[in-house]
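Troubleshooting log. The previous structure file for this entry was overwritten by mistake, so regenerating from the original sequence record. Sequence copied from the archived sheet and checked twice against the printout by T.R.
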Amino acid sequence: MLKSLEGSWCVILGASSGIGRAVALGLAAEGVNVFGVHFDTASRRDEVEALVTEIAAQGVEVRFHNANAASRTARAELVTDLRELTADSGGVRILVHSLAFGTLVPFLPRAGWDKPISPRQLEMTLDVMAHSLVYWTQDLAAAGLLRTGSKVYAMTSAGTVQALPSYGAVSAAKVALEAHVRQLACELAPQGVAVNAIRAGVTVTPALERIPEHDVYVARAAQNNPHGRLTRPEDVADAVALLSRTESSWISGNTIGVDGAELHAAAGAWGSASLVRSES
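Regenerated output below.
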C-alpha cells in the first residue's frame, strides 16, 4: 500500500548539485523534510543558498551542512544532529547516497596524463564513492534512525560494465557500491529496511562533465536512448519518490535502471538505426 511521505525526513549525501539536488527538490515537493550534506567551496555559496530557499518554499524543513560526508568526525556530528532533529518524526525515512568525488586518472601511463593513478587516489575514490555508504548506514542504524519502511538508495552507473580511459577508479567504486547494496539489503531485511542501487542513464551533471571523454560518451548515449533524449536528474528523483511511498521492503538488494531503456538499446542495434534516421 502506498502512503504519503509528508512530514518524514530524508538525508541526501551530495545534495547541492546534479542528481542529489533534483532528489532534494523532488522529495520536498512530496512534503519530505530535507537534511542535505554537500562539500562546496565559497564560490558556490549563493547557488547553494538559493537551492535551500527553493526547497524551503515547498513548506518543508531544510537543513544543509557543508561538510565532508566521508569524514568520520563529520558523520558523527551530523548523525547526532539527525537524532535530535528526527526524534518526533520516526527517524530517517530515506537515505540517498549521491557522492561523486573521485579520481579520474588512468591506471597506467598514457599520453596526455602526467602520471598514472596512485594508491592514495584509488583508496580515496573507493572510500568516498562506495565505502561511505556502509559507514553512514552503520551509524544511522546504530542511532536507531533506520526503521521499518526506511529506504536506502545508492547512485551507481553503467560504468560498472563499461570502460573509459580515465574511469577505472570510479568504475571500481561503483562495482563495490553495488556489492555493498546487496549486503546491506540482506542485513537490514529483518528490520524492514530496503536498500537499492539506482542506475541512472547518462545524465549531464557536474560530475559527468569532469570526465575527460564525456562529450563522446554523451553523444553516443543520446543516439542510443529510445526516448530520443538523455536521462534527466528529475527522472531519478521521480523514481526515488515512487519507490519510497511503500512501507514494503520486498524490493531490496537490486540495481534498478532509470534510463529509459538506454542500456538495453545500446546492447542491440538501436544506436545505428537512430543514426540512420537522423541522417535521412
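Residues 88 and 98 are 26 Å apart (CA to CA). Archived copy saved in two places this time.
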